[in-house]
Specification:
There is one protein chain. The chain is an alpha/beta fold. It is 39% helix and 17% strand. α9 packs parallel to α11. The structure holds pyridoxal-5'-phosphate (PLP). Pyridoxal-5'-phosphate binds next to α3.
Length: 358
């Protein structure tokens, strides 16, 4: 079976062997206070710094999931007001988490097939302490323009910015100097088992958390930024973490660095071009994203034009290909195809050949 599911996605090349080796090395049983763990920790964080071009001034924290990244962003950087850009299920979840934490969350919501246009021209942020975005809406295949976010960062330097990059990392090129909390989990583009989140935090983000903390505002307990930062400086975590996944991520990063990020991005471009060219020429599918500029490079979402997408998914499975159904309300009217680093151009061509026969 060739897996093109959006998440959990296909294992990245070499992960099966890495898993077996990790068991042979006894990694599931090592202490998270040992030197061996600290070495695994620093290999992983150094790999992230290199692959994603993260400034040394920023901190990298390990969490349990990307959803935790949403909660930690709000809890550590927002005393009262957060502002959310919503164009899909994940950005909406981010907003709901802020409400659940008792914050006065505001939102700017657009139709789910759309991006937000010229957000730098909006003047609605008022007292918002943090602006929250999802770069690539895995629910709809719409990606937003980062230049608009960077411009907002220049226009409103006092506001913090949080960005979810779960389904576009490491394809998306990020200017971390303009962002304060950037997070993802590993079961999408890094092709690893679920259960590990990664969060990159600016010095300002940590400062804000410390400031709230000192004034008696709750920033959470063991995973507040001050605590995460203190432990990360020792290449350790407060709790017993997902050691296995931190190890595996370190190996995948080494593999990706060996291949080179430009080669990875080039393959994603080529595969996305093939998939969208197919969809644009097809009478069975249409691309859900409304504007060509906002089409996601990594999650291709196609509307099945009134035919049950679940019936297509069933047929594809019989031919040896797994894709995701639509998300939420779109379950039976969309298919979602992962264009992650773990699939090759040849495999995408094979998938398209089968899609043509539907
Ligand atoms: C999958 C996904 C999440 C949630 O990730 P978890 O690891 O399940 O918390 C959040 N945001 C986006 C864009 C996603 O695709």
């Amino acid at each position: 079976m060739k897996c093109f599911k959006v998440g959990p996605s296909r294992l990245y090349e070499g992960v099966k062997e890495d898993l077996i080796e990790a068991v042979d090395l006894g990694i599931p049983s090592i202490s998270h206070r040992s030197q061996q763990f600290q070495d695994i920790y620093s290999k992983c964080t150094n790999g992230l710094l290199d692959l994603m071009n993260i400034p040394k001034s920023h901190s990298i924290f390990f969490l349990a999931s990307a959803t935790e990244g949403m909660e930690r962003s709000i809890q550590n950087c927002v005393e009262n007001y957060s502002y959310h850009f919503i164009n899909g299920a994940f950005s909406n979840k981010f907003y709901e988490i802020a409400l659940n934490l008792g914050k006065s969350a505001e939102k700017y919501e657009v139709d789910f097939s759309q991006d937000f246009g010229q957000i730098q021209n909006l003047n609605v942020f008022d007292e918002s302490e943090m602006l929250c975005f999802v770069h690539n809406e895995s629910s709809t295949g719409v990606a937003i323009e980062l230049d608009g976010i960077y411009e907002i960062s220049n226009l409103y330097p006092e506001k913090l910015i949080s960005l979810d990059i779960v389904s576009s990392v490491p394809d998306v090129e990020i200017d971390f100097t303009k962002l304060d909390c950037v997070f993802f989990s590993v079961q999408k583009c890094f092709g690893l088992p679920a259960g590990l989140g990664v969060m990159i935090v600016s010095p300002r983000g940590i400062e804000k958390s410390r400031n709230l903390n000192e004034r008696g505002v709750s920033t959470g307990s063991f995973h507040n930024f001050v605590n995460l930062h203190k432990n990360s400086q020792k290449n350790q975590t407060y709790e017993t973490p997902n050691v296995m996944n931190i190890y595996l991520l370190g190996e995948v990063l080494e593999n990706m660095l060996g291949k080179g990020i430009s080669k990875i991005r080039e393959e994603i471009t080529n595969k996305a071009t093939l998939l969208y060219r197919f969809a644009d020429g097809s009478d069975k599918f249409s691309v859900f994203a409304n504007n060509i500029e906002s089409r996601s490079r990594t999650v291709i979402v196609l509307d099945t034009k009134g035919v049950s997408s679940l019936s297509y998914i069933h047929k594809l499975k019989n031919d040896g290909f797994e894709v995701s159904s639509g998300y939420g309300d779109y379950k039976d009217s969309h298919i979602r195809i992962a264009n992650f680093p773990s699939s090759s151009v040849d495999e995408v061509e094979e998938l398209i050949a089968v899609l043509r026969t539907l």
